Amino acid sequence: MTQNPQLTMALSKGRIFEETLPLLEQAGIVVTEHPEQSRKLILPTSRDDLRILIVRASDVPTYVQYGAADFGIAGKDVLYEYSKEHPGGLYQPIDLNIARCRLAVAVRDGFDYEAAVRQGARLRVATKYVNVAREHFARKGVYVDIIKLYGSMELAPLVGLADAIVDVVSTGGTLRANGLVAVEDVMPVSSRLIVNQAALKTRAAVLQPILDAFEHATPSQG
């Protein structure tokens, strides 16, 4: 693969992008176009040697591991699932403490989750976080059938596809709007800086100062 002279960073639209901008600015980097106002998927920055790739959140680890991006930012939820299928492929040096939320179990309002668990019922659980969900319920000794969905998770309990979902919860507003309630936390989630291991070795002179700047700009966990 031909070495690209530029550094490439992979980011996803939305909350992670918005909360990364101040960290980039503290590192002296300004993204000169915004993905919500531009159709471009490769965005320039104020540094000639750095560009931003806009990709799906779940694809960020793939772009970084296979060298299409030198580094990127992804949520712990995405990284956990990815690492189960691609162990050891990414270096994760910094928890940036941004885009914080949690993975939680949610059910239809009125469904007695505790009773179902206590009675040993076999639950159907819809989620895109298959590995996280399977391990969570295994630790509890709860038998589950996992149904993999990629979106509109809240619909599953409402139409009888599943008894529960495991999904990202931030404010809980989407759950409430759809008549669901969170009944159990699975894991806290924040976004992490991830780095291609080869790039860290071969391009350390240009990459490490950016990583250091991110570490110094990262908000403390509170």
From TrEMBL:
Record's keyword terms, sorted: Amino-acid biosynthesis, ATP-binding, Cytoplasm, Glycosyltransferase, Histidine biosynthesis, Nucleotide-binding, Transferase
Signal peptide coordinates: none
Entry text on domains: Lacks the C-terminal regulatory region which is replaced by HisZ.
Alphabetical list of SUPFAM superfamilies matching this protein: Periplasmic binding protein-like II (SSF53850)
GO annotation terms (biological process): L-histidine biosynthetic process
Name of the coding gene: hisG
Boundaries of every ATP phosphoribosyltransferase catalytic domain copy: 56-214
GO CC terms, sorted: cytoplasm
Enzyme Commission code(s) on record: 2.4.2.17
Pathway(s): Amino-acid biosynthesis; L-histidine biosynthesis; L-histidine from 5-phospho-alpha-D-ribose 1-diphosphate: step 1/9
Protein name, UniProt field: ATP phosphoribosyltransferase
Oligomer and partners: Heteromultimer composed of HisG and HisZ subunits.
Gene3D superfamilies: Periplasmic binding protein-like II (3.40.190.10)
Reaction(s) this enzyme catalyzes, per UniProt: 1-(5-phospho-beta-D-ribosyl)-ATP + diphosphate = 5-phospho-alpha-D-ribose 1-diphosphate + ATP
